Amino acid sequence: MKTFLALSLVFAMCSGLSMTPQRSVVSRRQVFSVASSIAVVFTTTSPAIGRPEGVNRPELLPKTKGETVIQVGVNFLTSGQIKRLEKLISELEVKSGWKVRVLCQSYPETPGLAIKDYWGVDDNTIVLVADKGLKGQSNILNFNVGDGFQETLPTIFWTRLQGRFGTTRFYRDKGEDVSILSAVESIVYCAPDGCVDPPTEAMLRPKLGFE
Distance (Å, rounded) from C-alpha 12 to C-alpha 39? Predict the structure, then answer.
């Protein structure tokens, strides 16, 4: 199985690696992380970083399959917002074949590697992990992006998306829910042709029918 692009604290699944600050960018087959002592491991080993044993806690996942938005130990989203996201995600998958999945968590309470099998993550999957880090001060938007998006949604898109909607300042002012919703709406906005620059909040609302 191919590796996936991991962006800052992607999954916050494991402990044991001291990694670079969140604005560092490496190749699509490597990892960059927002916090030291949190490993970012989802598929195969990065060529630059050895892989520790990952957290694997399937008991934290829903008993039924098919949930596309999961919250573990946090309440970033209301039930209404979850339904809204599920609708967006479902329509996007039908339209473009892009699979978006959302995991809200607070490390170390994480299902870890179990999420990969639960969702059947592949090259056409984007996983958004909403996690503010060990001290609650990290960029909340963390992505694991399949290789199938290399041309349509390049690395710079995800870096800019984090900078636009995921910063501590943004979610403290507007809420974690707005950060998450805006990130998913941005992905929907860019389908199926792709983007380099994420849309602004003003651009999102009319297109997605939430004006």
Answer: 6
> What sign does the CA torsion over 29, 46, 146, 176 have?
negative
Say how far apart CA 58 and CA 178 lie, in whole Å.
28
| CA–centroid distance for 205 within its chain | 21
Q: Tell me how far apart the alpha carbons of residues 202 and 211 are, in angstroms, rounded to a whole number.
A: 9
Q: Is 62 helix (H, G, I), strand (E, B) or coil?
A: coil
pTM for this prediction: 0.78
Q: How far is CA 181 from CA 19, 40, 44, 82, 108, in A?
A: 28, 23, 29, 9, 23
Q: Could you tell me the sign of the dihedral formed by the alpha carbons of 201, 202, 204, 206, in that order?
A: positive
Does the CA dihedral 36-41-45-46 come out positive or negative?
A: negative
- Please state whether beta strands 99-105 and 69-72 pair in parallel, antiparallel, or not at all (unpaired): parallel
- Give residue-wise pLDDT tens across range 13-65: 433 322 223 333 333 333 333 332 233 334 333 333 333 457 899 999 999 99
